[in-house]
Design a protein that fits this description.
By secondary structure, this protein is α+β, with helices and mostly antiparallel strands. It has one domain. Helix content is 54%, strand content 16%. It contains 6 helices and 4 strands. A 4-stranded antiparallel sheet has the order 1-4-3-2. Strand 2 and strand 3 form a beta hairpin. The longest helix is centred in the first third of the chain and has 57 residues. The chain is globular, with a radius of gyration of 24 Å. The protein starts with a helix and ends with a strand. The N terminus is likely disordered. The structure holds heme C. The site of heme C (HEC) has 27 residues, from helix 3, strand 1, helix 5 and strand 4.
Length: 209
């Protein structure tokens, strides 16, 4: 303020210069610090990756069901889901996976300790009336002297079309039941109702310190 007053004769241009310098400094400062700004971008990208995983899974499954019914879609679900997760992981240099509240595939679908915690948080928030689509669970964990890992989980909710393979015994055709029994002798992923929490998409990535 003092400077502006004392430089009254060239007031406008000088104030303008001050503004420009101020802006430049704040831009440089933001770029120099790999703090919240950059991590905020990583967070947004992570959200988008989880959303892409959910969208691609749902679309691929729907197309397979229309093409050859639930019996044929089993194979698609088994191979396509890990393929979509892998291609998103490679593309974005992150790790994408999916887990279930009650798993069908004991090798891929069982949640680890952190994922179990995320699913429990989802269950209690849904029970409290929150919409699954609005919920996410995020934690930044120090995994080494210089490493921070961002862990992100987003609910997978059962849709009506999923009941053909995850619903009640009456909703699953004998053919599908037979094939599932052969492929997954310890299948726990049945008796789900539409709207119920079925699992989570998980994205993990390293953040710059
Ligand atoms: C055509 C049958 C079929 C349909 C329809 C289907 N699934 Fe699955 N689902 C499977 C099979 C088979 C697996 C096990 C895949 C594997 O081997 O990893 C599975 C696994 C999963 C898993 C991973 C956890 C686990 O249990 O192993 C999730 C999550 C899941 N399904 C959610 C859904 C959702 C949500 C829908 C509806 C949008 C759906 N599924 C529809 C057959 C199906």
């Amino acid at each position: 303020m003092y400077i502006m007053l004392s430089q009254k004769h060239t007031g406008i241009s000088f104030t303008f210069k001050l503004l420009v310098v101020g802006l430049l400094l704040s831009v440089l400062n933001a770029n120099a610090q790999p703090g919240p700004g950059r991590n905020e971008l990583a967070m947004q990208e992570t959200r988008d990756i989880a959303a892409a995983m959910l969208k691609e899974l749902s679309q691929t499954l729907q197309a397979a069901m229309v093409d050859g019914g639930a019996v044929n879609a089993i194979g698609v679900c088994k191979t396509k889901a890990p393929e979509i997760a892998m291609s998103l992981s490679m593309k974005h240099q992150v790790q994408v996976s999916r887990v279930g509240t009650r798993a069908r595939n004991p090798d891929m679908g069982v949640p680890n300790e952190w994922q179990t915690k995320a699913l429990a948080k989802f269950e209690s928030r849904i029970a409290a009336g929150d919409k699954p689509y609005d919920i996410e669970y995020v934690e930044v964990i120090k995994t080494g002297a210089y490493d921070l890992e961002l862990r992100y989980a987003k609910p997978i909710v059962l849709q009506p079309m999923c009941t053909a393979c995850h619903g009640s015994p009456e909703q699953i055709s004998p053919e599908v039941k037979g094939k599932l029994a052969k492929l997954y002798p310890n299948d726990k992923a049945v008796n789900y109702k539409p709207g119920e929490l079925r699992g989570a998409v998980i994205v993990s990535r390293l953040l710059s310190h």
